[in-house]
Amino acid sequence: MATRKLTRRQAITAASAGALGTFVNWTFPSITINGTSQQKLAINGGEKVHTGTWPEWPVWDQAAEKNITEMLRTGRWWRGEGEHVEDFEKRYADLLGAKRCLATASGTTALITALKAVGVDAGDEVLVSPFTFIASYNVIFMNKALPVFVDSDPETFLMDPSRIEARITDRTTAIVPVHIYGLPVDMDKINAIAKKHNLKVVEDACQAWLGEYKGKKAGTLGDAGCFSFQNSKNLPAGEGGAIVSNNDALMDKCTSLHNCGRPFGSVPRTSAYPISGTNFRMQQFQALILMSQMNRIQKDADIRLANALYLDANLKDIPGITPAKLVDSNARSAYHLYALRYNSKEFNDVPKERFIRALAAEGIPCSGGYGPQNKDGLIEEQLSSKGYRRLFTEARLKQWREENVLPGNDKLCSEAVTFYQSILLGSRSDMEDIVKAIRKIWQNRDSLKA
Ligand SMILES: Cc1ncc(COP(=O)(O)O)c(C=O)c1O
């Protein structure tokens, strides 16, 4: 059966209009799962489905070299003497529709700064998603506050808003929703709870450049949003980060904090260093790399979206395979990773790790997502430290340990399977190979047991 192809523009329009169902039905032939042809799995010595290569990341644009060489020759490498970091901040704020942007040394330093700027202090509690990179909660420890995990909704891979209020105490100051893999959190619900309890919201949008929720970009929906530009990211510069916000006073404070506490804007000039800050500044060459990478970010995002929609449409009918669900029909993921859940029951109880190895053998690289980080060693190391035992009562720390039970997150960790963003920059035939390989593994699941 011939496949009618949508142009990229049509695909994006269909998706943004919430017309995924229509797009799915007339664009791609439905897959037959109960096919009769049994093939030997590559993991058992059969031929692999995908024999080609995958797009590499990051992609360098030689056109940027002239600007970088010129800047290097001036010796004005730090932001205090050059215009490039500021230029990047303006461009990034415009791209997201935010009033202000502050570039930082990394996503971690952006989060530390934003949390401090919204008022998180020693002895406070901050609600955070457990399905994330360690930095999301490590930055709470860095501010000498207590990260309190809110269970995940396995369907969306995100903080479950219905579980937030039970975790609020009189010490809670902020919520850190994480748009993990670029999947936007249900920010209306988070903001409503924050307003009701007078909490600040710092979005961890470190994986969510150009993700969208109800027409607004991820990272622009809370009090502040933080981004990472580390090398693997969809907008890479080796290292780098940014804070965005529409709140001038907050951004003035962030600017001051990240520049050793020097006065800036509304931060009063009562002394040379009126507030206690540190050096989290971005360098000029990072900004030039970022501006070069920004030339491709929208085009790449559109390709990833069209390919992800294809995968959503064609994987969902394979038993045991469930793509991540968006929280809203108008939400758009940034697809830092394409995420699905693997239900081993539908694969004769073959463990996820074996499924991942079988897919890799078919030429499809993927990985297993995050582990249950609420049980990570660094947490107990912090809770039992001298400082935390001074900041929190024994009863509170005991209660924290007792409540650190997250069944939704445990389920998610055991089922998540992810595909890295550059895979989604592949061709339509590459995407067909992903579907074919997963279908082949399901059809041949009897021969998959180790
Ligand atoms: C969700 C999340 N938060 C925070 C960070 C920290 O960013 P960085 O590595 O730039 O410090 C990352 C980076 O991987 C991340 O993925």
Task: Summarize the structure in short.
This protein is an alpha/beta fold.
Question: What's the SSE pattern?
Answer: HHHHEHEHEEEEHEEEEEHHEEHHHHHEH
Quaternary form: single chain
Report the C-alpha radius of gyration, rounded: 23 Å
Q: State the separation between the terminal residues, measured CA to CA.
A: 36 Å
Main sheet overview:
7 strands, mixed
Helices, by number, come to 15
What form results from the Cα inertia axes? Answer: globular
Strand order of the largest sheet: 1-11-10-7-6-2-3
Q: Indicate the low-confidence ranges by residue numbers.
A: 1-36
**Binned strand content:** 5-15%
> How much helicity do the residues have?
25-40%
Mean pLDDT: 92
Structural class: alpha/beta
Your description of this structure?
With 450 residues, this protein is an alpha/beta fold. The protein is 38% helix and 12% strand. The chain is built from 15 helices and 14 strands. The chain has helices at 8-16, 20-27, 65-74, 84-96, 107-117, 135-142, 187-196, 248-257, 284-315, 352-361, 377-383, 386-391, 394-403, 407-415, 428-443, and strands at residues 100-104, 125-128, 146-149, 152-153, 158-159, 172-176, 200-204, 212-213, 216-217, 224-228, 241-245, 321-323, 337-342, 416-420. The strands form four sheets. It has a seven-stranded mixed β-sheet with strand order 1-11-10-7-6-2-3, sandwiched between helices. A three-stranded antiparallel β-sheet has the order 12-13-14. Strands 4-5 form a two-stranded antiparallel ribbon. α3 packs antiparallel against α9 and α5 crosses α6. The longest helix has 32 residues, at 284-315. It is globular. Mean pLDDT is 92; it is low at 1-36.
